[in-house]
Amino acid sequence: MKQIILDNAIQLATKMHHGQFDMHGVPYILHPLQVMRNLNSNDQELNAIAMLHDILEDTEATVELLKYHGMTNRIINAVVVLTKAVDRKFTYAGYIERIIQNEDARLVKIADIEHNLSPDRIQTITEKDVFRYKKYSDSLIKLRKGVSK
Q: Given pLDDT bands bounded at 50, 70 and 90, which one contains residue 86?
């Protein structure tokens, strides 16, 4: 059953991210695939969370669509926590604090940031990249500790 959930998550992410590209022109679906790979886990639901971690934020997908495709409450809850746009009152620091409260989201966000900080994802370093690198590096330290504040 859980393998079917992962298959559904991969298919849904592929469909919803179709036609999207990262800032370097690489098909966006490769990012959630790499995040899943970075987890190095056999936990099918955790891998599904990795595949879907940007879906509510970057596509027209909804929680109802996730339910329709058989995603469990565990998967949906973590994906919602990982979605910045869920609650606009949160600062980025507040967003990270919220993620720390959900172990699945915390593990996926660590894998996500590790991929985002990967040197092969940055071709030319701009001032914006330096700021983002610092923000992500600081967040990664907090997430790895797994302790709020």
A: low
Q: Helix %, strand %, coil % for the chain, to 5?
A: 70, 0, 30
Q: Quick one: CA torsion of 104, 109, 49, 88, rounded to 10 degrees?
A: 100
Q: Which residues of 43-52 are buried (b: 16+ CB within 10 A; e: fewer)?
A: ebbbbbbbbb
Q: Which of 38, 55, 47 is nearest to 7 (CA)?
A: 47
56, two tokens: 């509510």
In contact, 117 and 136? CB cutoff 8 Å: yes
Q: In the chain, what percentage of residues exceed pLDDT 90?
A: 63
Q: How far apart are CA 47 and CA 21, in angstroms?
A: 21
Report the pLDDT averaged over residues 19-41.
94
- In whole angstroms, what is the distance from residue 67 CA to residue 77 CA? 11
